[in-house]
């Protein structure tokens, strides 16, 4: 169970959607997809890999990817099946490192309308890395401040300054 400021999540699934992003030095998307499948195959009951983003012919913005998962899970599948037999809407959220949160506000890569869409309708879990204080970062930016209740900081019990790029 995950708890954060009067909220709790009893169960969750993490979907890993390797993207079709092509960058020098980055392993091809088909290989990244296969590596993710192998990593999740026998090691986790709550991680799954989805190829939708990788199969798109061009770069797909994160807001559109989140919309896709929301549609597939909540509209097509009807949400999560509860023990009572009822279905409940699933809360879709983005999982990022604090370094990405910081770059979302400083790099001209993210469209402002997408940032509003992501933080308003989905929100995110932010894994703190290094010395960066997520609360402080939120207070520096109007967009983040506006949606602060949808941004959950995940404190690291052990100092961690390794970016996901280095892990990959």
UniProtKB/TrEMBL annotation:
Name by which UniProt lists this protein: Cytidyltransferase-like domain-containing protein
Domain Cytidyltransferase-like: 13-168
GO molecular function, one term: nicotinate-nucleotide adenylyltransferase activity
InterPro entries (UniProt xref): Cyt_trans-like, Euk_NMN_adenylyltrnsfrase, Rossmann-like_a/b/a_fold
Originating species: Pneumocystis wakefieldiae
GO annotation (BP), single: NAD+ biosynthetic process
């Amino acid at each position: 169970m995950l708890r954060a400021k009067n909220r709790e999540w009893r169960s969750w699934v993490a979907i890993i959607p390797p993207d079709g992003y092509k960058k020098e030095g980055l392993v091809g998307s088909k290989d990244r997809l296969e590596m993710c499948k192998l990593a999740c195959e026998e090691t986790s009951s709550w991680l799954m890999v989805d190829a939708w983003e990788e199969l798109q012919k061009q770069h797909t913005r994160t807001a559109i990817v989140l919309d896709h998962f929301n549609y597939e899970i909540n509209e097509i599948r009807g949400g999560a099946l509860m023990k009572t037999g009822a279905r409940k809407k699933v809360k879709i959220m983005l999982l990022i490192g604090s370094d990405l949160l910081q770059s979302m506000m400083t790099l001209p890569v993210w469209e402002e309308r997408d940032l509003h869409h992501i933080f308003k309708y989905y929100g995110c879990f932010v894994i703190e890395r290094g010395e960066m204080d997520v609360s402080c970062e939120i207070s520096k930016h109007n967009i983040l401040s506006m949606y602060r209740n949808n941004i959950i900081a995940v404190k690291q019990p052990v100092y961690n300054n390794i970016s996901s790029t280095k892990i990959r």
